[in-house]
Design a protein that fits this description.
This protein is an alpha/beta fold. Helices cover 40% and strands 13% of the residues. The protein is built from 28 helices and 19 strands. A five-stranded mixed sheet has the order 6-5-7-8-9, covered by helices on one side. The protein has a four-stranded mixed sheet with strand order 2-1-3-4. Strands 12-11-10-13 form a four-stranded parallel sheet, sandwiched between helices. Helix 17 packs across helix 20. The N and C termini lie far apart (62 Å).
Length: 711
Amino acid sequence: MPHNPIAQPQESAPLLLSPEQQDALKQCLARFGQEPGGLLPLLHSLQDRLGFIPRAAVPAIAEALNLSRAEVHGVVSYYPHLREQPHGRTLIQVCRAEACQSRGGDALLAHAQAKLGCQAHGTSADGSVTLEPVYCLGLCAQSPAVMVDESEVHAQMTADRLDALLEEIQQKQLETKADEPQPALESEAVAATRIYVPRDAAALAVGADAVAQALQRECAARGLAVELVRNGSRGLLWLETLVEVETAQGRVAYGPVQAADVPGLLDAGMLQGQPHALCHGLTEQMPYLARQERLTFARVGIIDPLSLQDYEAHGGWQGLRSAAAMAPETIVRQVLDSGLRGRGGAAFPAGIKWKTVAAAPGPQKYIACNADEGDSGTFADRLLMEGDPFCLIEGMAIAGLAVGATQGYIYVRSEYPHAIAVMNEAIARASAAGWLGGNVAGSGQAFYLQVRKGAGSYVCGEETAMLESIEGRRGIVRAKPPLPAIEGLFGKPTVINNVITLATVPIILARGAAFYQGYGMGRSRGTLPFQLAGNIAQGGLVEKAFGLTLRELVQDFGGGTATGRPVKAIQVGGPLGSYVAREDWDAPLDYEAYAAKGNVIGHGGLVVHDDQADMAKLARYAMEFCAIESCGKCTPCRIGSTRGVEVIDRITRQGGAERAANVALLESLCDTMQHGSLCAMGGMTPYPVRSALQHYPQDFGIESVQTVNPV
């Protein structure tokens, strides 16, 4: 009788856990075993302790959480950042998002493969380094970007810098260095000069910690008394590390500063705000900042992100105090009247969501913050969470009071380790001070908050997939209805907004709906933090009222391309956004006007490409990205994206009648994906493909194409 592996499964040796693994699993089960939706946090905790998730741990996890082994294994295998096998002694992740591609990210990955002698997802022969592509690290204005061991970020990478990094890793096997800022120098005899050095990921990626340490070391040697404040980034990312010195006239900016520049800066009188080649004068008078209208980002880069005193001194908690004295329906009315729309991309009126959840019956409701900022070219959520975390906390607490929710979750992507650390610490401090907990701001109402860490799935940026992930399952998109406002997290009414939406609420409650309505145009009220990324000279964040143009953003603020070559293409709205036609670069940025042209503003991210960009390659990448990141639930997205890659390959490879037939086939395929997909993953992938084909037909080897407007 032939061998039957199903009937005789015991022939292979059973999988066993080592004593160390058993102890780690026991501790993780004790911490997360009874928590609602605790599977994903448990798996993260186990992987943090062991470096991977042993297959032999699955039965015990399944039993403890009352799940099947298939359900546990299904979650482990679904998320790219969960591993069943240990990686090399060091993990190197190279970003492949469009912003990094525009500055040579693909060439950097190829160089890393050649240097290490392994392919992507492989490990060097000596076991020292595992190489992985990743999408995206949120350092889009400082591309290309690399992350080491899922914690240490590096930006503006070149082949030479990568070689130096790999050499350091292989020689030292990545000596652990503390990320916390060094203690400030103190002097009782002399008043200390306050110096600001950012500690957010954008600054850390270009050496901010080394700058801070050099300042302390050099000032100590010279007997200079300084107080070092680790603030967030101002958003002028091409100038990081941007050091500011407090003077009688105001804060004076110097940048980009490297550790080696510190002695010369001190020699020139930096502590007195004196001129230097790196000096930009008074920070607030720098044109890039002076032309902005910073409402949501008013404190970012100015305060110590984790100082409750600093936050309150700059207007923090005013909105929550006002909300605590209002009836819930009055809070909702303020948000409705302000005209605030969702800043995550869909632009749905926030007040309508809140009103729906407030009216929904049931004793348990939730606030879910979508901080899964995975779009290439976007980093505003990260900048705010790392630079002004209490603002997000305040906005979520106000939402809780408005709709009667007692529990909130912030779903943060795993590629943002610094944001996760800052948010966790800020929640602990806000809770201890009474801004969260059983009696929020003296309101008599309870609101508790916790961070949930994602695991590398782009589609979890879709609201229902995010809910599935928070609940401890694979991030598979749900069909709607029911709407999450009626049956959301754990089947209860749930407000889902993104970081910027919720962080904008405090200023509306503090200053009034009419104040916020005073900015913007048409139905696009208030401001939006536009993010300039890709091949751009002055990448960073620009918060402006709706109504300015792409040309103003890219040329006036961004200074054109980093290479100095002409701008060829601008993608707006992330990897699912269109390449905006050149004739529309002077059109006002407004939700309705952009939608009428088949474009989306989305989260406000812009990725710029110069005239060397291959738009057929970028269109192909959009389909490839969709195929990789699709949750797989619906056929148009899962299969259509795979076929899309094949069809674009045929278009660029063939000629004559075959090419024309495949262009028509691509149009038909895009139409099916757009109208037949369950969510925006498949439904919007045609946007970049069709716009690239329509506006840059020569890159596909054709003269022109009459494409359907993807409205």
